[in-house]
Each structure stands twice: as C-alpha cells, then as structure tokens.
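Design request, tokens follow.
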C-alpha cells in the first residue's frame, strides 16, 4: 500500500508537467499573462509570463481521483475486474466506492475554486464574492459529508455546529494562506510540496491510504509545476492553482486522523495540532501580512509586497535565497509535526516549542533588523 501511494507522487508529476507546459504554450499564444495590479494593489514589476499553471495542477489532482472513483465503482459493481498484480488494492477499491459521494463533492469544490481562480486571474473579482465561493465548498463538505474538525470534541464542547464553524474557518485560513504566499517564483508550490510530503508521511504512518493517495497527487502536481516555476519562472500558477492547493490541503488535513482509534482516551490529543505545526510558516506569513495591512489602514484582501518573502529581500537576501529560507523553515516545522501524535507529552511539547522558537527567530530577524539601505539608530 505504501508503494502504491508513493507511486501517485510520480503520477501527479507525470500529469502536471506536460499539462503545465501545454497551458504555458497556449497562454503565450493567447496573451494570457499575469495582469497588472488593480487599484490599491502592489505587485512586482510586470513580467509577460502566463499565470495559468494552475490548470496543470488541478488536472494532476482531479483527473486521477475522478478516474479512480469511476474504476472503483465499476469494480464494485462487478463490471470490470482488477488485474492480479493489483490484488492488494482491492481494499482501497471497496473503500473508494463507499466514499464516492464525498469524492464527488470534493471534486466539485476543486472545480469551483479552480474556475474562481481562473476568472480572478483574468478579471479581478471583489473580495466578498471570492470569500463566499471559497467557503461554500467547505460548508458543503462539513455539513453534508461530516468532514469536520473537532469531531472528537462534539459530545463535550459545542456540538456539531462548532465543528462546522471551525472547519469552514480552517478552510478559509488555509486557502488564503497558500494564496498569500504565492508571491515569488517557486514559493507557494515548494511550500505546498514540503508540507504535503510531511502530511503524506504522517498519513502513511497511520495507514490512512485514501488521504495518502491524494496527498501523493498533490505533492507530485506541485513538483511537476515547479519544473516551470522555479526561479526564474516560465509559468505562474495564478489563483487558479493556489486556491486549489489551499483547498486540497485544508480538506486533507481535516480528513486525517491525528489520534489513535481510542480517540481522546488514547492520550495523544495534542496530535490534532499537527496541521498548525506543519503549516506554521505559511500561517505566520498570512497572519503577519494581514496585521501589517490593517495597521497601515489597508484591506487585508488587497495584495501588497509586505509578505515574509518580500521582507526578507528587503533585509538583504536575494529573491531565490528568500524562497529557499522559507522552504527550509517549512521543512523544519513540518518535520516537527510528522510524528506529533506518536510522541509522549513531553516530547510533543518539545516539538511544538521548537516550531515556536523558529517563528520567534524569524520575527526577531525581521523586526530587530533594519531593511537594507536604512541607517541604524
């Protein structure tokens, strides 16, 4: 099962790379390039580069899932049979057939977010309509398909409604965090690949094959796209890619089980904090840039060049080095979170403390130093 899930990383990359290259070539012919900033928005100097790479990412994630659900239902109905060498996958086939309605709902949300991003990349939409369309699929999954956070706490705190609210908010935060961090060549896809790989490792450790399979596709899709996006980029993912990545990560982190079969009685309740630990760096960027915009009297939903990556560049790093630093910090945080639920309480506390120290060091580096070119007091 492990090798089957890992093979989906290669499949995702195998689909994403040519799909992204086709999108790049067609977009260049049609002039579908990254757009100039709208009123009040700050963007780097304009480059005539297509921002349609999200098409390849969405296809690499969505197409194998759709085909897998179709095949699973055909096998379940006895219409077709599995080859002998795929015998171990029979358990996955039965499980996929049972989860088809939820799979269709997930794919429907992926399409909605992807189309929203494609439209916004061509003709920027208002923040309110974008927010509603971002949160709509999350609400559907939470209400009708029991894709919820805090399920273990439902009998104790707030009931199902609190789980639904928390889940929708989590989707909104993760989607926007991955959208916000898409501001330099290679940054968002690299962060998503690293975080996705950490979640993939945890899913494999816990034997969550369906979650692991989709994570494999996500990691592969990001790696395939990075071939054309790593500095200096030939293709941007655009909102059509970053929203899909954020949505997929949010969905999978909610579907992952972070404690043992005994639930809260297992004692490893702190495992539920794994997503916060793994995604600590993009969440740090999301929170800090939103606070900076509000402090400056700007809308947190209007783009600016105040992200962590931009702030590191202003302190002397090259753009490529800033990307590598953020990749490295994401990996450090992710490694701390992989085995969180398997650790003893004091070990888990050390892992969380390590990530906290990492963020404090980042903050000190930023706010205790002067941007390049400024005189020191």
């Amino acid at each position: 099962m492990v090798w089957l899930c890992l093979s989906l990383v290669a499949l995702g990359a195998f689909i994403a790379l040519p799909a992204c290259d086709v999108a790049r070539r067609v977009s260049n012919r049609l002039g579908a390039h990254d757009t100039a900033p709208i009123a009040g928005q700050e963007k780097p100097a304009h480059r005539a580069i297509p921002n349609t790479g999200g098409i390849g990412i969405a296809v690499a994630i969505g197409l194998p899932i759709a085909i897998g659900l179709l095949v699973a239902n055909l096998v379940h109905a006895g219409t077709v049979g599995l080859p002998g060498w795929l015998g171990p996958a029979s358990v996955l086939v039965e499980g996929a057939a049972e989860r088809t309605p939820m799979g269709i709902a997930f794919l429907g949300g992926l399409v909605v977010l992807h189309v929203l991003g494609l439209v916004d990349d061509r003709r920027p939409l208002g923040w309110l309509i974008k927010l509603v369309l971002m949160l709509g699929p999350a609400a559907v999954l939470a209400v009708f398909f029991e894709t919820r956070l805090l399920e273990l706490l439902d009998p104790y705190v707030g009931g199902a409604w609190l789980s639904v609210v928390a889940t929708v908010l989590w989707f909104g935060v993760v989607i926007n965090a991955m959208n916000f961090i898409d501001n330099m060549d290679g940054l968002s896809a690299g962060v998503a690949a690293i975080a996705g790989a950490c979640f993939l490792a945890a899913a494999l450790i816990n034997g969550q094959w369906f979650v692991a399979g989709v994570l494999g596709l996500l990691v592969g899709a990001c790696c395939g796209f990075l071939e054309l996006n790593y500095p200096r980029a030939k293709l941007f993912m655009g909102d059509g890619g970053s929203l899909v990545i954020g949505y997929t990560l949010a969905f999978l982190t909610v579907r992952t089980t972070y404690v043992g079969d005994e639930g809260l009685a297992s004692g490893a309740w702190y495992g539920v904090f794994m997503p916060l630990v793994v995604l600590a760096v993009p969440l740090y960027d999301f929170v800090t840039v939103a606070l900076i915009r509000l402090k400056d009297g700007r809308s947190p939903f209007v783009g600016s060049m105040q992200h962590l990556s931009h702030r590191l560049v202003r302190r002397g790093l090259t753009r490529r080095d800033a990307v590598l630093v953020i990749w490295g910090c994401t990996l450090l945080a992710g490694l701390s979170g992989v085995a969180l639920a398997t650790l003893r309480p004091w070990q888990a506390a050390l892992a969380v403390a390590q990530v906290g120290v990492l963020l404090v060091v980042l903050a000190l580096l930023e706010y205790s130093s002067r941007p390049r070119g400024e005189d020191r007091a």
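Comment from the thread starter after seeing the answer: thanks! Confidence is low (pLDDT under 50) at residues 261-267.
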